[in-house]
Design a protein that fits this description.
This protein is of the alpha/beta class. It is about 20% helix and about 30% strand. The chain is globular. The model has no long low-confidence stretch (mean pLDDT about 95).
């Protein structure tokens, strides 16, 4: 069994398993890098790292079409009060939803409500880490002690998140087998340095274009 992981542009990631379609940070409409429109995708689980507009995106579109929201308590309660199906959690916690184990990790970033976070998704005997928007944080050192991450999605755009140098250090600390850089190139202020990141990370770097996939 394997998972098909697709980078949709910016921080949006779509995971397709034998039993689930999991969408993380569904910023598609108004995203100049988006490789798909909301109506072209489906999701039964929607994970949101934080509530900035370039991550929140089309969340309600997918919730209206039956996805279960997974996110920090305050955001989950907001959507739950609108009648959507939600699974609230918080940093350091883990939940299991329909056989998918989800761990919420720390992310160092600003936010409107709740906290900014990342996720480790465990399914099909694989572990996939989406760091969300974050600076390099010492908490990343701990992930390697508790998880064996098969694939990581790491922001490299700088200015609002890690840049190439600190992102490469994050990859070293978390011990991921492979890593896809995200949250870069969407607009000039976060052009990032993808070539430098690839050089620093070496063979573990998987340099996808929006809409491209990797099997895990």
């Amino acid at each position: 069994m394997s998972i098909k992981a697709t980078w949709l542009g910016h921080s949006a990631v779509w995971l397709e398993t034998s039993n689930h379609k999991i969408l993380i940070d569904p910023y598609l409409t108004d995203n100049p890098m988006a490789s798909a429109k909301p109506e072209e995708l489906s999701a039964d689980l929607l994970l949101l790292t934080h509530d900035h507009a370039d991550h929140l995106g089309d969340t309600e579109h997918f919730l209206k079409n039956g996805a279960t929201f997974v996110g920090v308590f305050e955001l989950a309660m907001e959507y739950g009060n609108k009648g959507y199906t939600v699974e609230p959690m918080n940093i350091g916690g883990s939940i299991t939803v329909d056989g998918v184990r989800i761990h919420m990790t720390n992310a160092l970033h600003s936010y409107e409500k709740g906290d900014a976070a990342g996720f480790i998704v465990e399914t099909e005997d694989r572990q996939i880490y989406h760091a969300g928007d974050t600076a390099l944080t010492m908490d990343m050192r701990l992930l390697n002690e508790f998880f064996n991450i098969d694939l990581a999605f790491i922001p490299i755009g700088d200015r609002f998140t890690m840049g190439a140098n600190s992102a490469a250090r994050a990859v070293e600390w978390i011990g991921a087998q492979r890593v896809v850089p995200i949250h870069y190139g969407t607009w000039p202020p976060i052009a990032g340095e993808p070539e430098r990141f690839a050089q620093l990370v070496g063979s573990r770097a998987v340099m996808l274009k929006p809409g491209e996939s990797v099997n895990v």
